[in-house]
Amino acid sequence: MNDVHTLSPEHILVCPQCDAAYILARPKTGERAVCTRCHTVLIRNKHEAGIQIIALSLAIAILIVAATFFPFLTINAAGATNSASLLDAALAFSDGPLMILSLTTAALIVVVPFVRVILTVYVLSPIVLNRTPARGAMGAFRLSEALRPWSMVEIFALGCAVALIKISDLADVSFGSAFWMFAVLVFLVVIQDNLICRWSIWDSLETPKKS
Ligand SMILES: [Zn+2]
To answer: What is the tens place of the pLDDT at every residue in 70-79?
Structure first.
């Protein structure tokens, strides 16, 4: 009897969206496994995706660092010009009760996404090169997944856009280079996240190829 209930957990695949359970059949390279009930892609078996994810991760890491230090916006009001980077904004409240808030904000916008891409590169590089997984790779990937809801680059970009439109009545506001870096970041983060096949990564970590 090949009933889903009698199989051991490693032979069962559960749809993360609708909880439908399937008997695991490994798709060949280039094939996909899709949930028949809700059409969520369950397994993307693409080897070249690993290299794309690593490349995107490195681009994201560089953009995050650059976007922190370059001017984010320039405000021109009553003849005075002021430009500020994200770091300036975070440090502006460095004393007083707002410090915790500003440090938390900076962590969610900059530190968490940065840590996640570094963990992704650490976990994926040996897999892509067909090597044995890096030391602590499972823990690293679990941490990266746990941090996923706390990575708020896109929410930040959206919030900034709304705030800037509101103050543009009062002052002459122009976007600095860091703003455009964040705009690109939002797209790269979404693309990278869509390329990652979690099942394939866990599978590679649990059944490593002998090299
Ligand atoms: Zn489903």
So the answer is: 888 787 777 7
